[in-house]
Specification:
The chain is of the alpha+beta class. It has 16 helices and nine strands. It has a five-stranded mixed β-sheet. It has a four-stranded mixed β-sheet with strand order 6-7-8-9. Helix 5 packs parallel to helix 7, helix 7 runs antiparallel to helix 8 and helix 10 runs parallel beside helix 11. The protein is elongated, with a radius of gyration of 47 Å. About 15% of the residues have low confidence.
Length: about 575
Amino acid sequence: MDVIARAWSKAVRTALPGPWRFGLVVRELVGALLIAGLAAPIEVLSSTGLALPMAVASGLLFLVRRGLPATALVLTAVASGVGGGTLPLLVCVGWSAGARIRRVGVLAGSFAAGWAMMTLFGVLKDAGQIPAKLIVGFSLGGYLLLAVLPALWGRYRAQRRALTDALRDRNEQLVREHAMIAHQARLRERHRIAQDMHDSLGHQLALISVHTGALEVDRTLTDRQREAVGVLRLAAVAAMRELREVVGVLHDESTALPTGPGPGPAAAVGVGPGAGGVGTGGVDGIEGLVESSRAAGTPVSLLREGERRPLAASAGHAAYRVVQEALTNAHKHAPGAPITVALRYEPDALVVEVVNPAAPEPVGVRAGGAAPAVVSGGQGLTGLRERARLVGGIVHAGPTPGAGFRLAAVLPYRGADGAGAQGVDSGPGFAAPEDGPTRAPDGSASPWSVPVKRRSPAIGCAVGGVAVLAAVLGLLIWGVVGFVRAAEESTVKRSLYDSVQLGTPEAEVRKQLPRGSDFFLKNLEGTGPTPPEGADCVRYLSDDDAGTAFGEDAVVRFCFKDGVLVEKQHYRVKQ
């Protein structure tokens, strides 16, 4: 019993999916009653005697069309082939099937099966009364008009609603990403400020503290001068302490966003801002970096090619950082190896290149032993690429054929100040042109303006609707032409009737008579005066309707016996 109860509950949930809100319940019940109320009188007019069953079936199928759209469509098509009471329901289930069946194959198969069942039951019901080809043609036209066309409209509405929801979700996501990128931009700026403060102000304050400490112990100073120097030294120490606290706060809020190489490893070998008295951080500071590396015992050569051209401050700082990171990496991974630093001024950009070969055999390492592992955060190159991207350039890093390493950057002269100069609200390093989507300086689209190619659902549904209307129009024309032709083939002209004489051989008369159509001539069987005994009679409509009252048809009859025409009659019958 539990299994049966669970199966029944699952079937009910499938056929009647929720959530059943009050408004939805009222709408569904009213719709079911309306459809059932339309089905009953249509069946009464059709004289099928199925008014009550069709009304009940229409109401039930209307309720389950949401959960079982394909099943409701096929069953409604079967009922439409038996009687006309479910034709209003066919419109509703067609709409629901088009909107709710997602898979195109299932949708097409459901509609094909529905039309086949509707046609089959229509042929079985009207067999002998209406030609089969007319039943097939009119059932196809009616099915396309009453089921397929609403399905296309329902599918269009469903796809449009889904597209609107997706665009709304995407817009909300982009707004969130925009806010996140703005927040990251603020954190990056904090990190940059902290790094610059540490590199410049920290070095200067340390120099002030060292010099004032030396003056404080100078015996040539008076007590008052020594006291003033002590106050100055304490002020420098306090300023250094406050600077470290500020830098610590800024770093605490931006540690998750490492941007570029810091001064840590570089400072250990004298390669960093302020080393050797050079703290400009631009192209002019590169020579100081080279001198500091030479002072540390590493052979470094500096090459300059081309005519020197002014470089934007941000691009110059990026070039400085490229050389600084390359020298730091060379000291870490290839200690003692010669380094070549090249600055080539091309027509449109500055090319900075740092190359070093493989490191010589480390001193003090046993044969077969391994050199100590180098500690690396792995963020230096990432920070360099970000710096170069913000000024519109690129960075390339990779090994050389001789097991060495090469780090190169291309930094443009113009546009570097504009790149990355936008406000925080636009995100770091992205320009927003007025005539196009937001793009990064390298030409790639920004994260919140990636174009998404979406095909409008209206195109496919419109094409389908036009095709359906064209098919219906074609079937209608075909039906009208066929109807007119069948009527002509069932009508005998008055001139032919008058020209046929009694006693004419049957074969000659039948050769002149039209082919006839059961659709028009079946109801004429047995009408008219009593035919001659033993005669075989055929009846046709007549085009001579003079004196024919409304609701009457003019009929001609030809009777044959023993192979000759023995009688011809012209009379009228009520339709």
